[in-house]
Every structure is written in C-alpha cells, then in structure tokens.
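Please check our next protein.
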Amino acid sequence: MNTQDKTRMNKVTVELTFDEALALTGVRFGQDRQIGTAARQKIRAACQKTIDFSPADAVDYEQLN
C-alpha cells in the first residue's frame, strides 16, 4: 500500500472505568463478566464513529443488546 489509511492516524478517546481498563489487559472478573464486554463495546462504538464497519463485522457481544 502506497498511501496510509488516514483513519488509522486519528486518535480515539474512550472513557473507561478502572475495572474496564483492567479487563482489557486480561484481568478476569469472575463475579461480573460484563465488565470486559462493556469496555469492548465502548471501544467499538468509538471506532465506528471513525471507520464504517460492515454488518458482517459484528461480534458476538453486540448481539446481546
């Protein structure tokens, strides 16, 4: 690829709770498994504002809503 994808050069800001940030590093919360899911949903929503995802790219946790 000769040209860089400009959308990947943008910064994305997402507000996460401390537990959500920990869940993204791999820490598991046995009592509340939704912590990691909520964090991933927030990040995906922020990315969708910048990048147009096709419906085929949907992930399992999006179907839980």
About this structure: Residues 27-51 form one domain. The first helix runs from residue 18 to 25.
